[in-house]
Design a protein that fits this description.
The protein has 124 residues and is an alpha+beta fold. The chain has one domain (4-121): Sufe protein. Chain: A (Alpha-Beta Complex), CATH 3.90.1010.10. It is built from five helices and three strands. A three-stranded antiparallel beta sheet has the order 1-2-3. Helix 2 (59-72) packs across helix 5 (100-121) and helix 4 (85-91) crosses helix 5.
Length: 124
């Protein structure tokens, strides 16, 4: 059902926790399944220097959060904005169709954190 990569990121998630000095915070959820993701970013010089997440949900939600944070850590804001749910799912070597919404949440969480950062910087 799940790839080895999904299982690895679920059982050994990367970048878990809260980031005290975050200047980008995004929270997204899916009322249908109950998954909630909160992404914390530290953005310096237009680059994501650190990123953490807290996810309440299924194994696929945890795995997609973990993978998405790995994919954007150290990247520019624009590179992070270019991240797609399809890229997250592909990096995890696929997700069952009924779990693809988890990769969508991961993409939305990254974008919500960047949106929060821009609003605090007064960038439109």
């Amino acid at each position: 059902m799940y790839s080895d990569k999904v299982m690895d990121h679920f059982t050994n998630p990367r970048n878990v926790g809260e980031l005290v000095n975050a200047n980008g915070i995004g929270e997204v959820g899916n009322a249908k399944c109950g998954d909630i993701m909160k992404i914390y970013m530290k953005i310096e010089n237009d680059t994501i220097s650190d990123i953490r997440f807290k996810t309440f949900g299924c194994g696929a939600a945890v795995a997609t959060s973990s993978m998405a944070t790995e994919m954007v850590k150290g990247k520019t804001i624009q590179e992070a904005l270019d991240l797609t749910n399809k890229a997250v799912a592909e990096a995890l070597e696929g997700l069952p169709p009924e779990k693809l919404h988890c990769s969508v949440l991961a993409e939305e969480g990254i974008k919500a954190a960047i949106d929060y950062y821009y609003k605090r910087q007064d960038v439109q």
